[in-house]
Write a structure and sequence with these properties.
InterPro entries: GPC_Orphan_Receptors (IPR051880), GPCR_Rhodpsn (IPR000276), GPCR_Rhodpsn_7TM (IPR017452). This is G-protein coupled receptor 26-like. It is found in: Cell membrane. It is a multi-pass membrane protein. The chain is mostly helical. It is 83% helix and 2% strand. It contains ten helices and two strands. A two-stranded antiparallel ribbon has the order 1-2. A hairpin with a 4-residue loop joins strand 1 (147-150) and strand 2. The termini are far apart.
């Protein structure tokens, strides 16, 4: 085994473990908090988390075996099923991110009419469209028999064998349409929604800045340290929204674009994609599943509060059981000593 292959295998294992733990933590937060379940965006978050868990359980182990064996991990039927699931899951996950961005846009730009524009029924309809959209491409791939093992990516994915060169035009059209309607469409929605949110956030910050400056001018006797602290908070407030939006859009582009661009470039007959590069882009593609819980959930105060509460309850239970066990052990030892003294 070469060093690059070893590093790629370790990367897949680490990504799989982190993705499984973090996405299960999100589901745990939903089961323990009625407040989180009451929010409409929670439907999109649950859809995204389920997609990431399925990707972690089904596709990441298959890719790990493909890298370790340098060959198809299992038979043709299994590889076709894994390829079908990858197309469906990744498309559904991207559309869920786009739905979350649109929900945030409606909540920020139209706060007074949000409850009428985004209801549970609307959220379920969006999720249903996401599933239908994903099934359309995955079923097309399955019927055309374009799912198989790709040595370039060491995984079961959308792939056209060399023997099927007659279908190259149809396969090229399908691949281009698939990535345009998933990656490109979702990126466009993310940029539109979050840039609108950023504009509203900056306008609010300007109003707050004007009020802050006027207040500081009126308070003549204020201490200079307090004034500096207010100005520093004012600067952080302006940067906070921009940083969050950069994380939302930047993580999407960073994780998905290398893989998508590689898949489009390999359609050119004269281009050969190196195997290590293909697997590396696949690992980066999988890394999005492990970063989504942090980007959308676990770094928010509501989720952190619920997760900390769940962990603290488990810790208290463990401490209680340990104390009961130690007490029973002490009593047993005392009883044994008393019996020994009597005898």
């Amino acid at each position: 085994m070469s060093i690059p292959e070893f590093l790629l295998e370790v990367s897949i294992v680490v990504i799989s473990v982190v993705s499984l733990l973090t996405n299960l933590s999100v589901l745990l937060c939903f089961t323990q908090s009625a407040e989180l379940r009451a929010h409409v965006p929670g439907i999109f978050v649950l859809n995204l988390s389920f997609s990431n868990i399925l990707l972690t359980v089904i596709n990441m182990p298959a890719t790990f075996l493909g890298v370790a064996k340098s060959a198809k991990p299992f038979g043709d039927l299994f590889c076709s099923a894994v390829s079908f699931s990858e197309t469906f899951i990744t498309t559904n996950a991207m559309l869920s991110m786009a739905a979350l961005s649109m929900d945030r846009w409606i909540a920020v730009v139209f706060p007074l009419s949000y409850s009428s524009k985004m209801r549970y029924r609307d959220a379920f309809l969006i999720v249903a469209y996401s599933w239908l959209h994903s099934l359309t491409f995955s079923l097309t791939q399955l019927m055309m028999d374009w799912g198989g093992y790709s040595h370039t990516y060491a995984s079961c994915t959308v792939h056209l064998d060399a023997e099927e060169a007659s279908q190259l035009t149809a396969y090229t059209t399908f691949t281009a349409l698939f990535h345009c309607s998933s990656f490109a469409l979702c990126l466009l929605v993310l940029c539109f929604a979050y840039l609108k949110v950023l504009r509203v956030a900056r306008s609010h910050c300007k109003r707050i800045d004007v009020i802050t400056v006027q207040t500081l001018l009126l308070l003549v006797d204020i201490h200079p340290s307090v004034k500096e602290r207010c100005l520093a908070q004012q600067k952080k407030r302006r940067q906070r929204a921009a940083k969050k939006i950069c994380v939302f859009i930047g993580s999407f582009i960073l994780c998905f674009s290398p893989y998508v661009i590689t898949r489009l470039v390999e359609l050119l007959p004269s281009v050969h994609i190196p195997r290590y590069w293909g697997i590396a882009t696949k690992c980066l593609f999988y890394a999005k599943a492990s970063s989504d819980p942090f980007v959308y959930c676990l770094l928010r105060q509501q989720y952190r509060k619920v997760l900390v509460g769940v962990i603290s309850r488990f810790v208290r239970k463990d401490q209680y059981f340990m104390s009961v066990h130690s007490t029973s052990s002490t009593l047993d030892t005392t009883d044994d000593n008393c019996v020994a003294r009597i005898t």
